[in-house]
User: Fold this.
Amino acid sequence: MQINPADISRAADILKALRDEVGKAVVGQREVVDQTLIALVASGHVLIEGVPGLGKTLLARAFAKALTLNYARVQFTPDLMPSDITGHAVLDTSQGHGADLGSLRVLRGPVFTNLLLADEINRAPAKTQSALLEVMQEYQVTLEGQTLALAKPFMVLATQNPLETEGTYPLPEAQLDRFLFKIEVGYPTLSDEAAVVVRTTASQTGDQLPLAGVMPRLDERNVLSLQKMAAFVRVDDRVVDYAVRITRATRTWPGVANGAGSRGAIALVRAARAAALLDVRDFVTPDDIKRYALPVLRHRVLLAPDAQLEGRKIDELLSTMLDSVEAPRL
Assistant:
């Protein structure tokens, strides 16, 4: 299926308008905003990691406000139960008569939404985190033997603090693999940090987030149309081969204990399709694959013990590995 050039141009304009709206609340962090935007178009979920106070929750809240979608937030804590996320069944006695005590009625949890903010997801133990496994992969929830489908579009925006901080639990590998991107939020530049202070304190009281200027730009129909359009962006077989070779290279690279599975290559191609749309193109280039390899792969590989002892970083190893994989010439 060929995509109309006018539609591509219109889609890019819509995405840039959405980026500008989020930028009214989030100062700087252009790469972080773009990666979240690409994950939305690629029908993927994102894990945003950074030390407290860098605007991870603000980014998620700004996206929620710029999208006229149903939005829910779950604050992950050590005592949070899986049923607090997915929902649970209660006995409805109003339907009972005589010896019949009634019937079970399913109360849907906050996961039944379009945009779910899982705030500080690594503050809850693995049992609770695993409640999102079925949700993120199959877009459905099984409660009391009933399979309930989620509305589309559906996206999980999860935030977490680095594992070195006190009171955190590592995410299960199966759940990490379900995130399209792991986005790392670093410290802002001096000028950006000054702008953050001004925007957050000027004419605002307490710790109020600067969200007043963010206006809705996309509705459910627009998002679904963009996701469908991205699925038809052309990908040459040589580009697919490049994505697969990058993924396979992680499995044998020195310093990596466990490499990425096939879902890594799938995520690379999905992200590259969405990135091409943002760049007003109906085809994927090898540069699209390479540009998003770090956020796609950094949470899918595990450092070997010797690399950890040497103080090596996953991004450092992956960057060296990417340079060793030959890109095709189209």
Notes: The first helix runs from residue 5 to 23. The CA atoms of residues 40 and 125 lie 27 Å apart. The longest strand covers residues 87-92. The radius of gyration is 21 Å.
